[in-house]
Amino acid sequence: MHMYKGHARAYTNIALIKYWGKADQQLILPMNNSLSLTLDAFYTETSVTFSSTFSEDQFYLDNHLQDRETTVKVSRFLDLIREKAQSQLFAKVDSQNFVPTAAGLASSASGLAALAGAASAALGLPLEEKELSRLARRGSGSACRSIYGGFAEWEKGDSDDSSYAVPIPSNGFEEELSMIFVVVNDQQKDVSSRDGMQRTVETSAFYDGWLATVPQDLAKARTAIANKDFQSLGEVTEASALKMHGTTLAAVPPFTYWSAESMRAMALVRQFRNEGLACYFTLDAGPNVKILVEKKNESTVLSKLQEHFSADQLIAAHAGPGIKIMTKEVEA
Ligand code: 2P0
Prior knowledge:
alpha+beta; Ribosomal Protein S5, domain 2; Alpha-Beta Plaits; binds ligand 2P0; EC 4.1.1.33; Mev_diP_decarb; lipid metabolism
């Protein structure tokens, strides 16, 4: 009997400059670079065991065995790893999502990064950050950024070899930041990010405008990080999110991830700013609003938000670490 085990923890990340659209759907090569902040509040821990005693892949998520449809997605990703490692062993994958509430915050970024790390460790594949980032990208684009703590930029590249994330030196700027999640309760009907971005690339009249302005937004974000310029980083973060979400309105058929509650939270952020409190919002492929604020102002923003949202809708996160490969065991 051969048994190989690996275990990893990866934290989720939120893009400040968004990834939106693929140039290659199979390899998950993006149309544009993106830039993110890895957070401490939400993470996935995954154990992968490959064994000659298994006759199929099994995927447990939060201790529940997943159905065939969900497991096939994991199996396809494991196939990439098996191919690289020249292994034909099936695997048991055991993933736990650590999120403060069951509010749709579980992230494919942390999940696929942890799976890439745990499975690579188990089968003895290279664990250098760049290799893990490339591999995680094949599972879910945003996962390639969760290999790193703090700020990361996904360099889009133009091939499997050249598309991966790199850390952005920041002189500790991320330690000054906080991201407050506003978990809204009127969830929209889901359009998955994968389907939503593809529909937008193929049909949105606004997509070219999105692509044309990403390089300048990235440059502004990099400069803001280098200069620890919170206002500039916040402004470009909010602008990137608004442009990304703008593209969906011109897709055919059109769609939006925003709900009435999202708009209420966005209006509050603008109101706080008008009152002199520097904070900026971003949203991903769903209605929850994330508010970027300096740590020194976190409690003020939280207490203002508590006048409008219940305490369990508000979660403060801070910069988180990179992936941790926690164990590797081999039993022969
Ligand atoms: C991002 N999002 O940069 C963007 C912004 C959502 C909005 O990456 O198809 O799960 O697996 O590559 O990474 C979410 O999409 O999509 C995402 P796939 P992914 O974070």
